[in-house]
Description:
Helix content is 40%, strand content 17%. The protein contains eleven helices and 15 strands. α2 (39-49) links the parallel β2 (26-31) and β3 (55-59). α1 (11-22) crosses α8, α3 (65-75) runs parallel beside α5 (96-115) and α7 (193-202) packs across α9 (268-279). The longest helix has 20 residues, at 96-115. The two termini are 21 Å apart. Residues 245-249 and 337-344 have low confidence and may be disordered.
Amino acid sequence: MKVLVTGAAGFIGFHLSQRLLREGFDVVGLDNLNSYYDVTLKMDRLSQLQAHSNFSFEILDLADAVQLDRFMSHSKPQIVVNLAAQAGVRYSMQNPLAYINSNIVGFANLLEACVKQPTLEHLVFASSSSVYGANTIIPFSETDSVDQPVSLYAATKKSNELIAHSYSHLYGLPMTGLRFFTVYGPWGRPDMGYFKFAKAILAGQSIEIYNHGQMQRDFTYIDDIVEGIKRVMLNSPQTTIAQESNGTSLSNARYRVYNLGNHQPVPLLDFIGTLERALGKTANKIYLPMQPGDVVSTYAQMDALHQAVGYQPTTSIQDGLEKFVAWYTDYYANSRPAAQHVAA
């Protein structure tokens, strides 16, 4: 089976591609290798993927509709997992057009290309826990209203869900959106809090803790995220008419949205304490007010995904952070020349 992974040089895309390659899938990777964070890290991820004979890669931006159509017509994947997006809540206030071009225009281009491919069996796309925005009822459920985004990033992810539903309804293409909850682990994104904390603690620098530490997150280890994605991509949604309590039909599209989290929210200060123990160093903490676009708590209700595909996360915060620290100290302790060649 051939799987197209967009954002293959990214954190989640890299780990998913690795898992699929080990299990014998043919993986086609796309990425625009943008400079939002260290491109060397992306190149080093790619160099590992390119060690597999069943992996191919092309540098391509989803915003380029012509090139994307050409690529899809040539590669003919059976499954597409779209993990390409402009990430980051705070950066969306600094460079909003990057989010429109990547997360809206690029996603629409991908859907247009997908509906033209008769070989395509399922499109899985990354959404985000950020869509829950100002919701205060926890745990967050897929049936909750998500009409109060508090960042442009969140708004683009909610838009992806709406656009995907319309395409699934119009063209009959099975689509599943996954709302990821605070993914962490080896080979992660340097702009994420835990990554920045580790770097600062090891360098003897202070770390900034927002909302004076009064926050919690449903931290989800990368291997658990990949397990969830793989289970979902092999189980495309069937046509089911959802109904409200008054009997009104909502949708008969082959479309679903699921939370993909750990279902065990951890107070931020406890998370930092676990990271400190894994690093063997104590952080100098600076407490600051809540930042624009941020939320106090995330907590995933996981019943729907468990019922659909039997998903159950297995990695504790302690084990996950110890694995991250082992990778981090090894990766940054060694000279790591980036891959000198990226096959295109």
